[in-house]
Records
---
Amino acid sequence: MAEILNKTTHSAEETEKLASEFAKTLPRGALVLLIGDLGSGKTTFVKGLARGLEVPSAVNIHSPTFTLINEYPGKTPLFHVDLYRLDDSRQIDELALEDYLNRDGILAVEWADRDLHRWPKGAFIVRFEMGEKDRRSIAIEKR
Ligand code: ADP
Ligand code: MG
C-alpha cells in the first residue's frame, strides 16, 4: 500500500475541494473505495469527485439506495455505489461492478469495507475518521 495523502479537513466544503483536486489526478477506470462511519463524509467526497470531473452542477449527487448505482455525466463518467445495505457478498456480485470499471469511468464505492477483499490491486482506498465538530481526517492510499 502506498500512502497518497493524509489530511484533516474542517468543513464539508474543504472535503469537497480536496476530493475535487484528487479526482483530477485519477485515470479513467479508477476505483475509489470509501470507508468510514455514517456521517464521516463519504458522500460529500463523491460530490467533490463529481465537481472535479466536471459533472454539471445541476446533477444531484446522492447515495444510490433503490437504484443501487448512480451514473453522473462528466468529462469522465462517474459511477456511484453505496453498499450500506448489502452485506452479502453475493448481492455485491450481482451488481457486476467490473462492468462499470470497464466503461472507462471512475467508480466510487461507499462502504467498500462491506467486502474489502474483493477489490483489485490498484484501487484507491479513502478512509474517513470523524474528529471534533467538523473535523474529518482523510487518508488516501493505493492498494
Ligand atoms: P457519509 O456518506 O459518510 O455517511 P455524508 O457525506 O453524507 O457522510 O455526511 C457528512 C456530514 O458531515 C454532512 O452533513 C457534512 O455537511 C458534515 N460535515 C461536517 N464537516 C465535514 C467535513 N470536514 N467533511 C465532510 N463532511 C463534513
Ligand atoms: Mg453516504
---
Amino acid sequence: MPLSNTYKSPVYARAKAITSVIFIISLLVTQIIAWGLLERERSLEQHQVRNEVIQFKNRLETILEYSSTATYTMALLVENGLLNDDFDSLSHQILRQNQFIDAMQLVEGTVITKTYPLEGNESVIGMDISKTPAHIRDAAESIKRQQLYFEGPFELTQGGVGFVGRFPIMKNSQVFGFSAVVIKLATILDGLGLSKSGVTDEYIYQLVKIEGEEQKLLFQNKESFDSGIIAKTKVPLGDWDIHVKLRNPGYWKRFMSFSILGLVFSLILSVLVWKVATQPAKLNMLIDLKTRDLKVVNEQLERRAEELEQYAHVISHDLQEPLRMVVNFLGLLKDRNGDSLDEQALTYVNHASEGAWKMKNLISDLLKYAIAGKNSGKKELIPLRMVLDDAISLLQNKIDESKAVISYTDLPTVYAVKIPLTQIMQNLIGNALKYASIDRAPVIIVEHLSLDDEWEIIVKDNGIGIPSEYYQEVFNIFKRLHKEEYQGTGLGLAMVKKNVESLGGRVWVTSQINVGSEFHFTLPKKSS
Ligand code: ADP
C-alpha cells in the first residue's frame, strides 16, 4: 500500500472516528462538571455574602439598640414629669453608658430646647425642625410608629454628617415633642469597623436611604449593586437598604481553570486513544513495507537460482559429449592396444576410465537435479502403487542381487506429476538398497498415513541408519555420509526434496543406527 494511502485506510478512518467521539465525550463531561462546579461555587459565594449582609445588619442594629434604650428612658421621664432641670445630668449618665451615642436632645413641640453636651452643639438650640421637610417627615414617621425612628445620613447643623433618632413623647394623648439622639458618622463607622469608603479586602458595603427622589448614601463609593455576588436587606429603624457585594468573586476563575484543565485532559486522552487506535495501521504499514522488501529479495533470489540452474543444465549437458568421447576412447584404447600395454599402463587406463564413469554419473545426476522440480507435466491423480511398480522395475537388478524384499499395503492415489514422483520413489528405494546392512538382506516397507489434506508416505528400511545430527543435512546437495564405502554423487536426496516441494509437500527422515531409516514425505490429496 503506498504511504500516501495509509492515512485513508479504514483503520485510520475508524481511529479518527473513535478519537473524535472520545474527545467530544470527555470534553462534554469535563465541561459539565466544570459548569456544576461553577454553580456550586457561585451559590457558596452567594451564601457567604447573604451571611455577611445579615451580620452587618446585626452589627448596625446592636449599635442602634443603645439609642433605643436612651430615647425611651428620656421620653418616659418627660411623660411622667420626672425630668425637671436634670436633663444634663441624666444625659451625661446615658452617654456614659452608651458608647454609640454622640449627643442627646429634647425637642418640645418642633423646637430643640435642650442638648447635651452643649459644647459644639449650641447651634441647634432653638432650631425648629418643622422648617426642614426631611426632619418633619421622619419625625412624623416616629409618631406614626410610636417608636424610635432615624433620619439620615445628613449634614448636621452642628457640623459633620450623622444620624438623628427621634422617639415621640406623648402627654395626654398629644405629641409633646421628642427625645432624640445624635450619632455621628465616625461613631457609626467605628462601631461597624469600616472606613468611609465602606470597602474591605473582601466586601464593599453601602447603606442607602431613599428620601423621595433622593438617595442618601452612607459610604463614599460609587459601586453598583445591580450585578455580581450581591445581597441586600432592610433595616426598619431608619428604612435603610443595606447592600453588600463580594469584592473578588473566585467562582469564575475556578470555573475557567477547571474548564481549561478539562480541555487539556480531553486533548491528552485523545492523543493516547489516537496512538492506540492507529497502532494496527502502523503495524500493517510496516508489514506491507517489509513484505514488499521480501518480495523484491525473493524475486531476485529466484532469478539467481534460475540462472544458476540454467548454467548447471548447460554445463552438465555440454560436458556429457566430451566425457562420452573420453570414456569411448579409453574403451577403444583398452580393447585395441590392451595387449601391448604393460601392467602399469593398464592400471592407469583403468583408473582413468573409472574416474570418467564417476564423472559421467555426477554430470548425469547434476542434469537431473537441475531439471528436478521444473514440473514437466500437469498434476493429476496417480495411484502410488503404479509409480512404485515403475521404480521397482527400474531397480530390479539391484533388488535381485541383494535379495531384497519390498512390501507394501494398499497405497493411496495421490495428486502429483508422474516423472518427479517416480524419481522420488526410485531414489528412496535405491538408497534403501544401497545403504543396507552387511548382516542382513534389505527389507523395505512402503506405508502411508492419511492426514487432513495430505497423504504421508513412509519408506522404511532395515539398513545402516543415519546419525540424528544429519537428519537435515542429508537433503543438501553433495552431502554424503559414507564417501569411502559407497559410491554416489550426493544429489539423490537433494533431488527428492526438490521434487517433493515442487509437488507441494514436505520431506524428513528419522532413523536408528544399525536398525534402519524412515523417509517420510507428504503429498496433497487434491488440488488446492
Ligand atoms: P548418495 O549419492 O551419496 O547416495 P544421497 O543424496 O542419495 O547421495 O544421500 C545422501 C547421504 O545420505 C548418503 O551419502 C548416505 O550417507 C545417506 N543416506 C541416504 N539414504 C540412506 C539410507 N536409506 N540409509 C542410510 N543412509 C542413507
